[in-house]
Amino acid sequence: MRQLSKVENAIFLTGALLMVVGAGASLLQWWAAPYVFAAGAVGFTTMQMLQRYEGSNFVIRRLRRIVLLSDVLFLVSALLMFASQGNAFHLDHITYLQYVYQKWVLTLLTAAILQLYTTHRIGNELEKEAKKL
Asked: Which of 116, 115, 111, 52 is nearest to 81 (CA)?
């Protein structure tokens, strides 16, 4: 795996922190929570996309694709967070409540579970790969 530089690592950690603050602040219904979360999601996902795997291990390549899927889900969560502030899609009230309102929590939870799983598995696979060399 390509290691991030110190600046990239700082952006990665700051993005993760902003995502946590933004998600927590949305529970308090702070108007700026989606902006904080979106800024963090963009920083976090950008830095994760810069971490490339150049090896030939199929398992790690598959896990990296799952990480990219979870990154997309983080960005979708940010969009849904904005949409939950008001009926941005101009849907009727019932449809909005049924399909949009507070659905960002589901995509965020799915992305977080995928991140936990892949982080653990990639670490184990990289250790196995290092022992073989």
From this structure: 111
